[in-house]
Amino acid sequence: MAAPVAGPSQVPQQGQPYNPSSELKRRPDGDDSARRAKFPRPPLPPPHVLSTLVPDSPAFTELMKIEQKLDWTLLRKKAEINDALGKPIRVKRTLRVFVSNTTHDQPWQVEAKSQETGGDVSMETKPDVDLKAGKGIAGWVLRVDGRLLDSGNARLDKTRRKLSTFLRSAVVEFDNREAPTFPEGNVVEWHPQTLQPPLDGFEVLRRGDVNVNCRIILHVNHSPERFRVLPPLADMISVKEGTRAEVMAAVWKLVKVAGAQDKDDGSIISSDSLPFHQLPELVTRFLSHPEPIVIPYTIRVDKDFNFHTKCFDIPIEIEDPVKSKMATIVQNFEGDEGKEIAKLEDKVGELAYFARDLKQKRDFLESFAANPQVFIHNWLAAQARDLDQMLGYQIGSGPNGGSA
């Protein structure tokens, strides 16, 4: 094919400077991602082509090598991070629970307040009594708080999960609070709601002026879910509690050690001719929810604030904070930074092909200026060959005489 002829839009008129940016501005605007999907940008010209286009291309070639090395490193790290994100990364932490209670409007509190006023219990010092709201009536408030102990790496562990996010349910059982004296009942339950925000603790308000024994039952929400293995399976695999995957791994180890797998058909357990795909269903029959955490506590009303002498540490497993950092890095690759890099790469490609177009125009005009007669003769012959080829004639024998 002959070299393209520079049209009016490509060759600047005499006396007018040629601005390469103006050529770029005439490109259609729009969404870059949609444009790349519809009209994908071809790869950059190879270095030996760029060296003929731009005299200073060795520096650009060196930058290209650095970019290739950097791209390879980033892609390898991204693949490693994606592989790590696909695997469960759990770390063991400790959830510490505190139990306390406060009292209000107890007889000894009212008496102490009257003594402060000189023993005159007037209407101004008597509390306002509201039976519906419980105001002015002796009572107490039980509070259960919890927090996740620091891991020692505050830089990674910035997110503070609240107590309620670790619980599947919470139950408080009171003793000696039977109706009709205490119509509220002796059992209080909490279950997570869909739109309920996370809580740092729970409060239970009740009326009463005597000490009350209670049991705080916490059902921990393990992730992944853990199960308690019931006998006799627990005795056979020596696993009392674990995840479903851990239990199945222990059962499979038992099958291999005992040689219970059929020698002819590996999908059958030879002891009872049990198909292997039915084994998970059989194991599920021996799984139950793990035992809850039970905290005994005595609610004392003989002082303003009563704190349990012990705190309770619950071992749990949570997602490694490093995993969230890795997910953020992957999102940055595909976020605004990645889009900006793609735009810069598109701009580099546009400039490279723009330089190639300018080189073609320059060679075209230089050849014409060197020998106009030979140039026009060769150009007409090339156009004639192209026309014969388009019309289906054999090159050199067509009516256009494209034989030169």
UniProtKB/TrEMBL annotation:
Compositionally biased intervals (Polar residues): 10-22
Domain of life where this protein originates: Eukaryota
Region (Disordered): 1-53
Record's compositionally biased regions (Basic and acidic residues): 23-35
InterPro entries: SWIB_MDM2_dom_sf (IPR036885), SWIB_MDM2_domain (IPR003121)
Pfam families associated with the record: SWIB (PF02201)
Residue ranges of domain DM2 in the record: 225-273
Name the UniProt record assigns to this protein: SWI/SNF complex component snf12
Native organism: Saitozyma podzolica
Organismal lineage: Eukaryota, Fungi, Dikarya, Basidiomycota, Agaricomycotina
